[in-house]
Amino acid sequence: AIQRTFSIIKPDATRRNLTGKINAKLEEAGLRIIAQKRIHLTQAQAGQFYAVHKERPFFGELVEFMASEPIVVQVLEGEDAIAKNREVMGATNPADAAEGTIRKEFALSIGENSIHGSDGPDTAATEIAFFFSGLELVG
Ligand code: CMP
């Protein structure tokens, strides 16, 4: 079925001017970018977005990193978009990511891993609504 998923191009990637290269990978995978904006989160906003991870040892580092520089938030649409996006992103740790994936090609470490993607339909809906209004989704 046609799905929507939420994606973030992270600070390590925007800093290295990789937005276009990452978008090309997403589009080549059959995903359509139906909403996109560049923003700079505060630490409070990053903490709210990643609240599910607040007990994890890396939470502080994650929040600081995500608020360190601009990010690009986007909504992707396509057939099985959630799984397709996770496939083209590759494993969380770039050391484990498959050849040809975004994280294999561009990520620096498990923390500075260039891209975030929703892990399921419920998270996708919540994450999209955190950043976008319905009017901004132009499918
Ligand atoms: P993401 O998909 O954005 O969701 C949570 C993020 O936490 C994850 O990608 C990683 O970038 C980050 N993360 C996971 N494990 C670690 C870790 N051990 N150290 C630092 N960051 C981590």
Automatic annotation (TrEMBL):
Main location (coarse class): cytoplasm
Keywords recorded for this protein, A-Z: ATP-binding, Cytoplasm, Kinase, Magnesium, Metal-binding, Nucleotide metabolism, Nucleotide-binding, Phosphoprotein, Transferase
GO cellular component terms listed in the entry, alphabetical order: cytoplasm
GO molecular function: ATP binding; metal ion binding; nucleoside diphosphate kinase activity
Cofactor(s) listed: Mg(2+)
Residues reported in the UniProt entry to bind ATP: K10, F58, R86, T92, R103, N113
GO biological process, one term: GTP biosynthetic process
Catalytic residue positions: H116
Pfam families referenced in this protein's UniProt entry, alphabetically: NDK
This enzyme's EC code(s): 2.7.4.6
Listed SMART domains: NDK
InterPro entries given in the database record: NDK-like_dom (IPR034907), NDK-like_dom_sf (IPR036850), Nucleoside_diP_kinase (IPR001564), Nucleoside_diP_kinase_AS (IPR023005)
Localization: Cytoplasm
Residue stretches in coiled coil: none
Domain Nucleoside diphosphate kinase-like: 2-139
Reactions catalysed, as given in the entry: a 2'-deoxyribonucleoside 5'-diphosphate + ATP = a 2'-deoxyribonucleoside 5'-triphosphate + ADP; a ribonucleoside 5'-diphosphate + ATP = a ribonucleoside 5'-triphosphate + ADP
PANTHER family associated with the record: NUCLEOSIDE DIPHOSPHATE KINASE (PTHR46161), NUCLEOSIDE DIPHOSPHATE KINASE DDB_G0292928-RELATED (PTHR46161:SF3)
Function noted in UniProt: Major role in the synthesis of nucleoside triphosphates other than ATP. The ATP gamma phosphate is transferred to the NDP beta phosphate via a ping-pong mechanism, using a phosphorylated active-site intermediate.
Complex and partners: Homotetramer.
Family recorded in the similarity comment: Belongs to the NDK family.
Protein's name according to its UniProt entry: Nucleoside diphosphate kinase
Source lineage: Bacteria, Pseudomonadati, Pseudomonadota, Alphaproteobacteria, Rhodobacterales
